[in-house]
Write a structure and sequence with these properties.
alpha/beta, single chain, binds iron/sulfur cluster, nine-stranded mixed β-sheet
Length: 231
């Protein structure tokens, strides 16, 4: 499968924030979010073709016992099920970071980190109508989200929030899943790739989380490293 990067870092987002982890970033995505922060794994996919054995060997060079399969969209990477199985066999904790547009189909996973994309992700005129339509059709699939929630031992729903209107949209989407989703499973992250931008939204978003019971999710990697590749 095409691998954009493999690196050892601290998990920056979600309920495992701070956990030393090896990140395996597959290259290629079925969406084209306008603000994508990993264009080298989506809009302009690049990387190295690697066999599952070579990826596992690379992971084993690091001391972490947590592995994060991310992208791009890892669930469209050929061989991803075999890679997850091999990691499970070796006792790793596996987080799968996915936009939840592809069902799990039995993939080995300890934490499904689901990040469905909101309306503000729609790509602009840089892309032709074909891609814009594909993005609109694929980005929100309540049945796929429900399948992940049913299948995974644990899950979190992570959303990037730019404005209070986004929260109303999120709540409407979650109702469409027909799942009982405890508010604590919903993590709201401020939108932004600088500490200043994150802080500017922290006040109102934090208060909103307090009022509704959602989890405010900091973006630790931005604080620690800035918006840099391989972190
Ligand atoms: S789903 Fe993720 S990787 Fe794909 S375009 Fe959107 S932000 Fe980028």
């Amino acid at each position: 499968m095409l691998i954009s990067e493999i690196f050892h870092s601290l998990q920056g987002e979600g309920q495992l924030a701070g956990m030393p982890s090896v990140f395996v970033r597959t290259s290629g995505c079925n969406l084209r979010c306008n603000w994508c922060d990993t264009p080298y794994a989506s809009w302009h996919p690049e990387g190295t073709a690697m066999e599952v054995e070579a990826i596992v060997a690379e992971i084993a060079k690091h001391p972490a016992r947590h592995v994060v399969l991310t992208g791009g969209e890892p669930m469209i990477a050929p061989g991803i099920h075999e890679l997850a199985f091999q990691l499970q066999e070796r006792g790793y904790h596996i987080t799968i970071e996915t936009a939840a547009t592809v069902p799990p189909r039995g993939i080995a996973c300890d934490l499904a980190s689901l990040s469905p994309k909101l309306a503000h992700s729609a790509p602009d005129a840089r892309l032709d109508d074909t891609w814009r339509r594909k993005h609109a059709e694929l980005r929100w699939q309540p049945a796929v989200v429900a399948a992940w929630i049913a299948a995974a031992p644990d899950y979190q729903l992570k959303f990037v929030v730019g404005s209070e209107a986004d929260v109303a949209e999120i709540e409407g989407l979650l109702r469409e899943t027909d799942c009982v989703i405890p508010p604590a499973k919903v993590l709201l992250m401020p939108e932004g790739v600088t500490v200043e931008a994150l802080r500017a939204k922290a006040g109102w978003l934090g208060e909103l989380c307090k009022a509704r019971g959602y989890r405010y999710a900091p973006r630790l990697h931005i604080e620690l490293y800035g918006n840099t590749r391989g972190t």
